[in-house]
Design a protein that fits this description.
The protein is α+β, with helices and mostly antiparallel strands. The chain has helices spanning 38-45, 54-67, 69-72, 112-130; strands at 24-35, 81-91, 96-107, 138-148, 155-156. It has one domain (24-149): 2-Layer Sandwich (Alpha-Beta Plaits). The longest helix has 19 residues, at 112-130.
Length: 158
């Protein structure tokens, strides 16, 4: 069974010391979805949500969230992000919006949590912006889909 790195020998939570690790390029991609009524998706697509441009604000919120991940998740290291990108795919068959976040750094620890945080906050922002039109939207399937770099190597989780 793999050892949990955020627990010490006594089972207490601690921040992992990554000081000995070499700086390497690291990338993570996360995805998630927000499912909604077709009518709500049409309002977003047509720019008719009263609060404003839903996807632009969700994109900015996701980027901001990635930069604040270590302030939100107790044992995450603050890391210098070199790139964060948040994008969206509207899908009438879902119906809803797929959210994709990419995070990059050159450093001693990975950016998986930053990519996942970006997706989560982008989804919550879409919900907040559109909740006047629909309160039954569902945020789902938030997951890491790719990770590159670091000691553990590449991960692909389509």
């Amino acid at each position: 069974m793999p050892k949990l790195t955020h627990l010490d020998e006594q089972g207490q939570a601690h921040m992992v010391d990554v000081g000995h690790k070499p700086d390497t390029e690291r990338t993570a991609i996360a995805r998630g979805e927000i499912v909604m009524l077709p009518e709500t998706l049409a309002l977003i697509r047509d720019g008719n949500i009263k609060k404003g441009d839903v996807l632009t604000l969700a994109q900015v919120a996701g980027i901001m969230a990635a930069k604040k991940t270590s302030e939100l998740i107790p044992l995450c290291h603050p890391i210098p992000l070199t790139k964060v990108d948040v994008s969206f795919e509207m899908d009438d068959d879902l119906p809803g919006i797929r959210i994709i976040a990419l995070a990059k750094t050159t450093g001693k620890t990975g950016v998986e949590m930053e990519a996942l945080t970006a997706v989560s906050i982008a989804a919550l922002t879409i919900y907040d912006m559109a909740k006047a039109a629909e309160k039954t939207m569902k945020i789902q399937n938030i997951r890491l889909v790719e990770k590159h770099g670091g000691q553990s190597g590449d991960v692909h989780n389509p």
